[in-house]
Amino acid sequence: MQPVIAAPAPQPRKKSKVPLVLGILAVLLVIGVGALGAAYWFVVRPMLEQRRVIVNEIPSPTPTPTRVAPTPEPKKDVAREVPPYSPPPNAVQFVNSIDNLDGRLKEHYVDFSFYYPQGWEKDPKAGVPGASNFAKVERRLPPDFTQENFAVGWYSSAGSEEGDRAVFHSLAEQLSAQFAKGFTDYKKVSEGSTKAGPYDGYEFRFESVSRNTERGDIKIWGRVIFVPPVDGSKNGATLLMLATSLADELKSVNDVGVKGQLPMLLESFRFGK
């Protein structure tokens, strides 16, 4: 199976001497995995601008065509009913739409929805022509310090969790290698099976740091989840969650998507309309 990714995003212009902070996401990165390149959901190209922590986009790797030995056609999963999510009163629903998409996002479109807190900001550069991610929303401290960030992209799938299982590690390694080029003191800390709402998925987690900001050294924690399609289609979803030590509820990478406000987004994620 060939992972495909969105075309490389232009290199951000350096506006300060402070090292890049959050090397998708635009976090929700258009992580399209195919051709064993990775940069998806969410191309996250975070940078520290004028000494401020900003999570932007994930650097998009250049797709590298790779010959893959033919494998037996995987058995397609039977789409199963999942329980509806009951949002709290302050929740806003995001429903993906193909109407304003072009390029790879339109070609690899995925139907999905999720809820996010009303106080979060929606990135106007996601889900529009030329975008890298289907969606990107963020919780921040004034003026623009990232606390938590969520982005959604895609990856090329064999059509089921069973069919994708053999390549999950390769996808994680390739995307992790891209992050390592954009994050200071980057370190992948774990990898393995996980859950994204009601769905089975595969994740890796990482740590980084943004040094010498106006708020001192800021720890960065990331979590990427590949969620296989449940209807036999060829496009899975890539979820990118980024958090920093500016979110008081979070103390380590193990808290991402578990504490703070990200759990709502992760638990409410649903395929379909």
Return Rg in Å: 17 Å
Largest sheet: 7 strands, antiparallel
Overall CATH class: Alpha Beta
Name the structural class: mainly beta
Please work out how many helical segments DSSP would assign.
4
Give the fraction of residues assigned to helices. Answer: 10-25%
CATH A-level architecture? 3-Layer(aba) Sandwich
**Strand neighbour order, sheet with most strands:** 7-8-9-13-12-11-10
Low-confidence stretches: 1-72, 74-78
Protein model, in words:
With 273 residues, the chain is mainly beta. It has one domain: 3-Layer(aba) Sandwich (Protein Transport Mog1p, Chain A), CATH 3.40.1000. It is 11% helix and 33% strand. It has 4 helices and 14 strands. It has helices at residues 103-107, 161-164, 168-182, 262-268, and strands spanning 30-31, 40-41, 47-49, 52-54, 91-95, 112-117, 121-122, 135-141, 145-156, 187-196, 199-213, 216-227, 235-244, 270-271. It has a 7-stranded antiparallel sheet with strand order 7-8-9-13-12-11-10. Strands 5-6-14 form a 3-stranded antiparallel sheet. A two-stranded antiparallel sheet has the order 1-2. The two termini are 27 Å apart. The relative contact order is 0.22. Residues 1-72 and 74-78 have low confidence and may be disordered.
